[in-house]
Design goal:
The protein has 453 residues and is an alpha/beta fold. The protein has one domain: Amidase signature (AS) domain (Amidase signature (AS) enzymes, Alpha-Beta Complex). Helix content is 37%, strand content 14%. The chain is globular and about 65 Å long. It binds glutamine.
Amino acid sequence: TDAHLGAIEAARVLNAYVVETPDEARKMAQAADAQIAKGEGGPLAGIPLGIKDLFATKGTRTTACSKILGDFTPTYESTVTTQLWRDGAVLLGKLNNDEFAMGSSNETSCFGPVVNPWRRAGSDAKLVPGGSSGGSAAAVAAGLCLGATATDTGGSIRQPAAFTGTVGIKPTYGRCSRWGIVAFASSLDQAGPIARTVRDSAILLGSMAGYDPKDTTSVDRPVPNYEAAVGGSVKGMKIGIPKEYRIDGMPAEIEKLWSQGAEWLKAAGAELVEVSLPHTKYALPAYYIVAPAEASSNLARYDGVRYGARVNGRNIVEMYEATRAAGFGAEVKRRIMIGTYVLSAGYYDAYYLRAQKVRTLIKRDFEQCFEQGVSAILTPATPSAAFGIGEKGGADPVEMYLNDIFTVTVNMAGLPGIAVPAGSDSQGLPLGLQLIGRPFDEETLFSLGEVIE
Ligand code: GLN
């Protein structure tokens, strides 16, 4: 814990942490030491972690990196973090993210962008760590924690993991409780870990997962021993390569990485088969209807009364307007406007209902694939390596949305997906591959992920 607190201080230029909790960390570490001495240490005893600022932490400021939450300090603890502390983990602080987890570069945070610890060969240009869990990914990659919590609505665990050479798993929808996590799009949001290795991510997920009666969408199924799946045989497993993921203009480096990953799995005894997921091309547009729709509804609660910041007006309506105008950033406002539009009477059927139907078709594509005996699907994690801060999404938000092309389908179908570092581009930047699994079969992803890692 001391070593990590020192590393955090020395690496503040990365802007990975938005709150540091050194006193709390030392106390928790001492308590873990005492437990270990008694032979009662939990599976994470003394392991220092960073927590994405979307998770409510009792007594520690939690703002989802939005001005509208002001200095909101919860009086309660999220279920996922409660389970981590139960198992002995130590809180180092809260990690930066895109405002309300909306973004793919960690540039929409009210605390400013996170800097990726990686650089292109021979260049000093600062790169994004991906998003929205950019602080989590950068902190793990730079050794500012041993692991971190993250959340993934359309790729926010897997894309930053790929951009920083770390491992990120988004488990099956319902595997981790969403209670006490700031909601973005409730039918898509899932928590998961970002860690240095597949094994670390398996251990962390084991603590984070589990049924919680406080989240009606969490699923009452026992949590398997994920760590035992690491190193498990993949002999005879059928791995699907979806032809629709061979998108136009895919960089040769990504193509090569993908074939290389397939070769590695084949060498380990898996069988590679081409599969078809015909509705893939509709996933991104449908996601950018469903996610903003749910966001506009979830974000209605930030009214200047219940949480954080308030800007006064002459009457209550003016107060609402002034608070929301000052409190939300540009990307969040864009999502609220899109969301209220697609949900409004007259447009609901044409947009929201249609997007939900597309969602069902996407889910069926995967089901058909798994019915043919496919154990998992291999794809690239991202269409490129990390890009420069300020390089994308300025005048054209869609340019930024295209980053999610390989990841959003997984959230739309509620499936588990893992991003594993698999190589680097010509500039030496890390690149990742994604494995998509059957519902509640995270174990297969850990076995396959370890082959690629
Ligand atoms: N980049 C996607 C978005 O902006 C996904 C974000 C996420 O997974 N939280 O909506």
